[in-house]
Amino acid sequence: MRPANWRIALFTGILVSLLTVGCNQGPFGRQVAAPGQPSELQDLNNRASQLDANNQDLHSQLAQSQRNVKTLANEVSLLKDRLADVTGQLKTEAAAKRETEDQIRALRASTRHRGGATLRANSSLKNSLRTVDIEGVDVRQEGDVIRIEIPGDDVFRPGDVNYQRGAVELLSDVANTVARSYRRNRVVIEAHVDSKPVAGVSAHELTASQALAVFDVLTTRGRLPEQQLTILSMGSNMPLASNATQAGRERNRRIELVVYPEQFE
């Protein structure tokens, strides 16, 4: 055999041996995947990708849940604030109601002895009514009492405690009439408003302030004795006309001086 031929034969034999040992192994002994079949590594990669996608979806759902919880917490906080406001208003209304009831009970008890002094009925009350004449003021008798009705808009701006122009003079004229005709009679200052809400204040709070403002004028400018007068906050509880019309609301906004037959000592 020639030298070149034996070398070719040796190379051919080695190549055949390698192919025979494993046609499915690579040049470094690694397993080669058959065409069309995923390897274990590829399968793990696919699973990892799926887990990552699931994880991202869970994070998205968690973030949405956290936003929903925050929104619900804000709504609960707003509801608590509204509940606190309503509770405060109810307490204010209840306190005003108790005050009114206490004043009414005090008036009903006015015929009894107080501090050793006896309140006596004034039998000349009806006769005194004939001499009362106040311009712009309605004076009428209801049972045993005299009502001096002053339009509220002539005294205060609607929904306010600021005096209208000429209000102090008008109240002073009323005080002079009371001093002449009912000098010893007990007088209750009733303040009334319509049913239209006033921002930031209840109807009873507003009429309490208005009654107190009238009390100040009657006692300072009119010089009526403080012990002769009682203030009563009526709110919108005693309308004289329908609050559905402008004229009715104007009629319901009023100040009434109620003169009782009892005398004070």
Structure overview:
With 265 residues, the protein is α+β, with helices and mostly antiparallel strands. It has a domain at 97-263: 60s Ribosomal Protein L30, Chain: A (2-Layer Sandwich), CATH 3.30.1330. The protein has seven helices and five strands, in the order H-H-H-E-E-H-H-E-H-E-H-E. The chain has a five-stranded mixed sheet. The N and C termini lie far apart (160 Å).
**The CATH fourth-level homologous superfamily of the domain at 97-263:** OmpA-like domain
Measured between the Cα atoms of the first and last residue, the distance is: 160 Å
CATH topology of the domain at 97-263: 60s Ribosomal Protein L30, Chain: A
Q: What's the β-strand tally?
A: 5
> Which spans have pLDDT < 50 for at least 5 consecutive residues?
26-30, 110-122, 125-130
Content-based structural category: alpha+beta
CATH class of the domain at 97-263: Alpha Beta
Anisotropy-based shape: rod-shaped
Q: What's the total helix number?
A: 7
Under the CATH scheme, which architecture of the domain at 97-263 would be assigned? 2-Layer Sandwich
